[in-house]
Amino acid sequence: MTLSTLAYFICVCGAATLCFHRSHLLNLLIALETIMLGLVLAVLSSLYSSNFYMALSLLVLGACEASLGLALLVSLLRSQGKESMNLMKTNPW
């Protein structure tokens, strides 16, 4: 199995997790991080040694995504006491 095949497999597994396990916010964040890991591996496997700026920018975006997700999770836990996605599905009308 090549590195690019593994990267695409990781992205598909992350997307499947994102679709099927949507009950908790932490599950969604882990699935998004899995997809970002797959994208970084795909970029690294396609670039080899030419230019790593694209991979570096993807890593920076992944770190920003993780920090924003953690901040959202902490604020939700402080306000509601739970991290279930059912709390976010309430209709404000």
From TrEMBL:
Keywords: Membrane, Mitochondrion, NAD, Translocase, Transmembrane, Transmembrane helix. The chain crosses the membrane at residues 6-21, 28-48, 54-77. Gene3D superfamilies: 1.10.287.3510. It is a multi-pass membrane protein. InterPro entries: NUOK/Mnh_C1-like. Pfam families: Oxidored_q2. Its main location: membrane. GO terms for cellular component: membrane. It is found in: Membrane. Belongs to the complex I subunit 4L family. This is NADH-ubiquinone oxidoreductase chain 4L.
